[in-house]
Amino acid sequence: MYISGMTTKAIRHRRILELLEDAPVESQAELRDRLASEGLDVTQATLSRDLADLGVLKGSDGYRLPGERPAAPAESRVAEAMRRQVTDLDVAEAMVVLRTRPGYAHAVAVELDALRDPSVVGTIAGDDTIAVLVRTRDDLAPTRARLAAFAGWDAHETNGINA
After folding, report:
1. Rounded to whole angstroms, how far apart are CA atoms 41 and 104?
2. Region for 5 from its dihedrals, namely left if φ exceeds 0, alpha if ψ lies in -120 to 50, beta otherwise
3. Does residue 55 sit in the same domain as residue 79?
4. Is residue 53 scored above 70 in pLDDT?
5. Measured distance CA(135)–CA(128) in Å, rounded
6. Residue 137: which CATH number?
7. CB atoms < 10 A from the CB of 101, how many?
8. Which range of residues forms the domain containing residue 15?
9. pLDDT tens digits for range 66-102
10. Can you give the chain as a three-state secondary structure string?
11. How many domains does the chain divide into?
């Protein structure tokens, strides 16, 4: 595909932005398929670079444009992220440890940080693990219960949660 005066990269970037504006995109594979259906074949590595160049953000609800605010309030976004991505919850000293599906820890941690919970000092995210650091030991149990509730789990449930 060639449009007068535009490089292939510029065309791809323009189309990526248009696709993200048109409808939610949950994965790079989905975005690659949409581009391919329009004759823009791109490798996963090139698409990753394009998304980084464009400043596209990956959240728990998929990819979104920079500056685009999620429609749902922070608590709704956390609940959605926790239900879709968190697979386990545990405690260690003064932190709650969350396990996510591979590659989703950062997205869930961003949503948790957006809550600005005064009992949470911050989060540290890897690929599939998040350490939620609580301010005091007294904050540990309520924070664990609140995160379990966001995930849709009963606070006393042991299936899916390590007590």
Report:
1. 26
2. left
3. no
4. yes
5. 23
6. 3.30.1360.40
7. 13
8. 8-64
9. 666 555 567 777 888 888 888 888 777 889 999 998 8
10. CCCCCCCHHHHHHHHHHHHHHHCCECCHHHHHHHHHHCCCCCCHHHHHHHHHHHCCEEECCEEECCCCCCCCCHHHHHHHHHHHHEEEEEEECCEEEEEECCCCHHHHHHHHHHCCCCCEEEEEECCCEEEEEECCHHHHHHHHHHHHHHCCCCCCCCCCCCC
11. 2
HSE-CB at 4 with a 13 A cutoff on CA atoms is 0
Q: Pull the structure tokens for residue 47.
A: 């698409």
Are residue 30 and residue 59 in the same domain, yes or no? yes
Cα separation of 163 and 149, whole Å?
14
Nearest to 23 by CA among 80, 72, 65: 65
CA distance 100 to 143: 17
CATH code, 16: 1.10.10.10
Q: Inform me whether the pLDDT recorded for 110 exceeds 60.
A: yes
Q: For residue 45, count CB atoms less than 10 angstroms from its CB and return exposed for 0-12, middle for 13-18, buried for 19 or more.
A: exposed
Query: Of 124, 131, 127, 126, nearest to 147 (Cα)?
Result: 131
Q: Which residue type is seen at 80?
A: E
